């Protein structure tokens, strides 16, 4: 009797023991952690304890996640879904995770991301890892829509590295007012367009290993607006032509680019491996001196005078030979007329056999 009462009381004061642990997982109530790691499960296991705060589903074969995947797990603050085969994130997938702070979706193959995947009303995510998470560069459009509508007002760190991203859709970061760390390393970005970083106050921006050839003046102004930002840009194929001048001047005037001394020209060949810090002192042939510009204008004016003079002489020669030209034109006209009459006569003979016999008898 006493033993039974003890079991009942112990159960009442230890509700966590009522939560069973899925067979493919390891559960620790003390650490409030559940690990279902490298178990080759194809979906989020059912029956994950409600006390869970740290949920690791790393290294499995999960291909799709939806709102039913995390139902009843409102206390989860850290969720790792890295190294799976996730291709689809359904609508309101993370809506039940009101306390989620860290989300790791790295090393997946996301091709479909519903615009309402995240909880727009109560999104508390601060760290979002999407490194090597996109199936291809076209998935960035879906991600941009989800970012704009997902209520990421608390997001401070975003990792988009190694996704073969070719361009950044307009407004993809517009709602990320709290963002401080942005990793765009090892993509295929060629141009940073105006307003890409508008409204952001970053502390760290990683643009290494992309395809950036230069940064234009409007993008430089946006970066200047971030007082605390530290930028990394090495291993980009910078082209040292006229378009690099504003960027080279900016590099020499700012301390925001921490690896500025490692930025070098890739093209043209004669400037290969030349430091961008020295590019502003190079003779790129982009500007003309005032004397050169005056000389060029003078050359154009002289060419115009010469062509006009030649035209006048040509017209004068035609005027002096107007009678001969008229006679030559009349002779040419008569000759053409005789030739045409001959062709016409032959055509009449060939088309009417009787005329051919008559002409033969006359002979």
Fold blueprint:
Layout (H helix, E strand, L loop, with lengths): L1 H12 L12 E3 L4 E3 L18 E3 L7 E2 L12 E3 L7 E2 L12 E3 L7 E2 L13 E3 L10 H10 L7 E3 L21 E3 L20 E3 L10 H8 L5 E3 L5 E2 L5 H9 L11 E3 L22 H31 L1 H30 L1 H10 L1
Parallel strand pairs: 2-3, 3-5, 4-6, 5-7, 6-8, 7-9, 9-10, 10-11, 11-12, 12-13, 14-15
Antiparallel strand pairs: 1-2
Helix pairs in contact: 6-7
Word description of this protein:
Among the domains are: 147 residues, Alpha-Beta Horseshoe (Leucine-rich repeat, LRR (right-handed beta-alpha superhelix)); 105 residues, Leucine-rich repeat, LRR (right-handed beta-alpha superhelix), CATH 3.80.10.10. A 10-stranded mixed sheet has the order 1-2-3-5-7-9-10-11-12-13, with no helix packed on it. A 3-stranded parallel sheet has the order 4-6-8. It has a two-stranded parallel sheet with strand order 14-15. The protein is of the alpha/beta class and 363 residues long. The N terminus is likely disordered.
């Amino acid at each position: 009797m006493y033993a039974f009462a003890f079991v009942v009381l112990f159960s009442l004061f230890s509700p966590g023991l009522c939560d069973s642990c899925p067979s493919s997982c390891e559960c620790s109530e003390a650490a409030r952690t559940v690990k279902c790691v490298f178990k080759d499960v194809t979906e989020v296991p059912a029956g994950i304890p409600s006390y869970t705060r740290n949920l690791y589903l790393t290294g499995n074969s999960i291909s799709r996640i939806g709102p039913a995947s995390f139902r009843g797990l409102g206390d989860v603050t850290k969720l790792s879904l890295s190294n799976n085969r996730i291709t689809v994130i359904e609508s309101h997938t993370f809506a039940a995770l009101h306390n989620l702070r860290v989300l790791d979706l790295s090393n997946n193959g996301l091709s479909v991301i519903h615009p309402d995947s995240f909880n727009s009303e109560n999104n508390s995510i601060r760290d979002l890892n999407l490194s090597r998470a996109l199936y291809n560069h076209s998935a960035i459009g879906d991600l941009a829509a989800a970012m704009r509508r997902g209520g990421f007002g608390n997001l401070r760190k975003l990792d988009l590295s190694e996704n073969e991203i070719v361009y950044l859709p307009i407004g993809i970061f517009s709602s990320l007012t709290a963002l401080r760390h942005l990793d765009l390393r090892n993509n295929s970005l060629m141009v940073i367009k105006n307003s890409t970083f508008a409204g952001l106050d970053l502390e760290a921006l990683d643009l290494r290993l992309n395809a950036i050839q230069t940064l234009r003046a409007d993008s430089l102004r946006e970066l200047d607006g971030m007082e605390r930002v530290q930028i990394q840009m090495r291993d980009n194929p910078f082209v040292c032509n006229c378009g690099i001048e504003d960027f080279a001047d900016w590099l020499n005037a700012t301390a925001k680019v921490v690896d500025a001394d490692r930025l070098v020209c890739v093209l043209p060949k004669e400037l290969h491996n030349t430091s961008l810090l020295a590019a502003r002192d190079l003779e790129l042939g982009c500007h003309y001196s005032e004397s050169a510009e005056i000389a060029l204008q003078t050359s154009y004016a002289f060419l115009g005078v010469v062509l006009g003079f030649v035209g006048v002489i040509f017209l004068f020669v035609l005027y002096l030979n107007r009678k001969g030209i008229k006679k030559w034109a009349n002779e040419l006209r008569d000759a053409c007329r005789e030739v045409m009459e001959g062709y016409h006569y032959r055509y009449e003979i060939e088309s009417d056999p009787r005329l051919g016999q008559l002409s033969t008898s006359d002979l």
